[in-house]
Please model this.
Amino acid sequence: MTLSKKPVTGMKDILPEEMEIRDYVIGVIKETYGNFGFTSIETPCVENIANLNCKAGGENEKLIFKILKRGEKLRLEDAQNEDDLVDGGLRYDLTVPLVRYYSNHANELPAPFKALQMGNVWRADRPQRGRYRQFMQCDIDILGEASNLAEIELILATTTTLGKLGFKNFNIRINDRQILKAMAAYSGFEETDYDQVFIVLDKLDKIGTEGVEAELTEAGYDSAVVAKYMELYKGVESADDAIGYIAEKIGQALPEGVIESFREIIDSVEATKGDFFKLVFDPTLVRGMSYYTGPIFEIDMPEFGGSCGGGGRYDGMVGKFTGHDVPACGFSIGFERIILLLTESGFKVPKAGRKVAYLMEKGLPSDRLCEVMSQAQAQREQGNQVLVARMNKNKKFQKEQLTAQGYEEFKEFYCEELKH
Model:
């Protein structure tokens, strides 16, 4: 059998140039989030299949890479259904593993617990630009904080990080699942219909209000209910104060304090943020995960043409593991999409020192080799990056390759004499 030198479909090899950018970005992320009080954790890449199928992952639960039982536990001849064959799966996000981790270690963790988790996840998805079957996720979460301080901190920490990476003129779109549900309830939809209604609503930016109205009507919903629902969104579009319009129009359908808390999030972020991004209320923002219970947010970057991350409050998820709900809120950066944008823009990792290449002729005596290594070490101690390598026969091509990697100075060492 011929071995394949290509990676599995939807996965990729990472070359040194991109790896340098990835390492730099990871460093900026960890340093910045650390300044906000987040601490790093790590969870296994494999989770119990029951956890992954707990109805919290939305469409991602259809994309699980499942793992067969091993050894004597795998009894193919006796299997009646998939449960008899599968007991684990590769994680499709970091939220389910985080909640399991917190549920298992809550007594050992501070309250509230501010977690930073970075790691690969896997989805059996259709690969496309910026989307792979194996990809890095970067999440920050606050567990045990019921107030909107969690949302404020998450938004500020995430946007500060993006700003340090050089991103500008992006939007943080923000909404609240309680506002979404109240608008649907006010219009006359049944609670059991919400998920389907929101799936259609999520297409509004692509098909417009008329398209959403037509699709909901074709799905069998009462035309008067659909019309009332669409009038709400038309009113929002024309209102000077969209939040105030919603509060006045459907106030009785909203839980007490939702609008006030939502405004406080927006006002606090606006008072603190720089001018490199905008915070935008978007009443059509849905977010696909069914576990969201409150404010939700999404990073919108025009140069990517789509979302580069998002998150929200998911207060009911810990209770699935422990039987006791714990307030929780998280924000995830689209790490792979951020790397794609930086790579395509020609981003270069900032260097404190120079990149120097020491090229040695083959057969260099040991005393000269010691001299070269000593010089290289001294350069490194001064903050420079030094590569020590044997000189190729085609020295010109070797230098061209090193120059493309960012090396700006070359020193050549020969057996008979020292040349610079």
Observations:
- The chain has a mean pLDDT of 89.
- The CA atoms of residues 373 and 388 lie 8 Å apart.
